[in-house]
Amino acid sequence: MIRRSARRMTRQRKIVLEELRKVTSHPTADQLHQMVRRRLPGINIATVYRNLEILTDEGEVMKLDVAGTQRRFDGNALNHYHIRCSRCGRVDDVHMDVVDSLEEAAAKACAYTVLSHTVEFVGICPGCRDGN
Amino acid sequence: MIRRSARRMTRQRKIVLEELRKVTSHPTADQLHQMVRRRLPGINIATVYRNLEILTDEGEVMKLDVAGTQRRFDGNALNHYHIRCSRCGRVDDVHMDVVDSLEEAAAKACAYTVLSHTVEFVGICPGCRDGN
DNA sequence: TTGCAATTGCGATGCACTTGCAATAAGAAT
DNA sequence: ATTCTTATTGCAAGTGCATCGCAATTGCAA
Questions:
Q1: How far away is chain A from the Cα of B9, in angstroms, using its nearest Cα?
Q2: Chain B interface residues (partner A, CB cutoff 8 A)
Q3: Domains of chain A
């Protein structure tokens, strides 16, 4: 019988999750590493990556593979849309309804079994637009 | 006066574009490199990358920065949606209408100037589903 | 034909992420 | 509490994709 290995709630994993949940920004792994380091100075970046992978796997957090740039992470695992600033790379949530009907439309339009969808908007953030 | 440098249609650039237009798949840079190499054995991968960058810039082709995987390229620069197989990584077009109203909704829901959007579906392709 | 900047090929480099491995430490069993 | 198993960690080295510096080449306008 295939048994998935028991997960342990290590200090590292706990703090990675706490710090990610604490912010509404979408930090990259190394930004989060900096944040976590303030509470756990010795933690290694590889550990942060490994835990983010596991937490994503468990559905606790969300991995954002945003267009061609560095991966970012989101403490909110519910599907929601994002917008990325094409000038500074910043990523924000877009507080609009998720359009689940897109998936039905896609299912009709291709031969795949559709599982999920993501929407990414690209634009200019207020900071960049208003010149800073 | 700022003058963007004059572009030259080199043999390399021409063939990169032709090969990419020739297929409906969404090759990665190195897949395209292989294809181009059959006609131009000496071409370097860096040249392929540079040309894809320039052609994207000119709106001739589209760069697909698909979720966390290797970058892919699309000979069709008009906005359309894609679906990625979560098992094999293959990417296909989804022949459904582009929902431009998403951008209006996003504009209302955040403070950005919205420029564009992309939708990516994730699913299981027929080949993987039907067991191969 | 000439001049020259855009482009190429090549190797080196960068960057983000992953992995192998020995040491450490959760947390279940005793 | 103590023991035991094995998941997890820190570290360093490794990967893979993409980019860069530079000298040589080549479009192409004059």
A1: 27
A2: 63, 65-69, 71, 81, 83, 85-86, 92-97, 99, 102-103, 105-106, 108-126, 129
A3: 1-78 (1.10.10.10), 79-132 (3.30.1490.190)
